[in-house]
Description:
The chain is mostly helical and 151 residues long. The chain has one domain (21-136). It is 73% helix and 0% strand. It has 6 helices and no strands. The chain has helices spanning 4-12, 18-42, 44-61, 63-82, 88-108, 120-136. The chain starts with a helix and ends in a 15-residue tail after the last helix.
Amino acid sequence: MKTIQEWFDEYSESHQDPTNKLMHWVCVPTIYFSIIGILANFSVLLAALVFILALIFYARLDVVLAIAMAALTLVMAWLIFLLPKGFGLYISLFVLAWIGQFYGHKVEGKKPSFFKDLQFLLISPIWCLDAYLGKVSAKWETRHKTQMTSI
Length: 151
């Protein structure tokens, strides 16, 4: 299994352009939020199962990032609980965020990483979270050095 460093370094190769990075900072959390919303509106048990499996994947890579991801997911789930029920909002956010993602990659001139390996769909949220933590905390040292330094 690849290390977190190896995943982040490989993911960063196709995320160098500042516009693409910005699109990812906005769109990846939006996609993550919309997936939680879609799953929770379909089946809370299914949403919980997917959440647990993702956290196991994250914990095998980095326990601290897995804990931070769990906290972020719980905040998102709480917001979803407060919002009106239904799929419309979440499907709209999902589609719009993917349009933003593909626009960012068009600007970058490189294909999205998940075309190479679907596991990158799980890497992108913690890649963004790692960058956020590096921006908001002087004590947090990102897990890779190429991470979004130009934004």
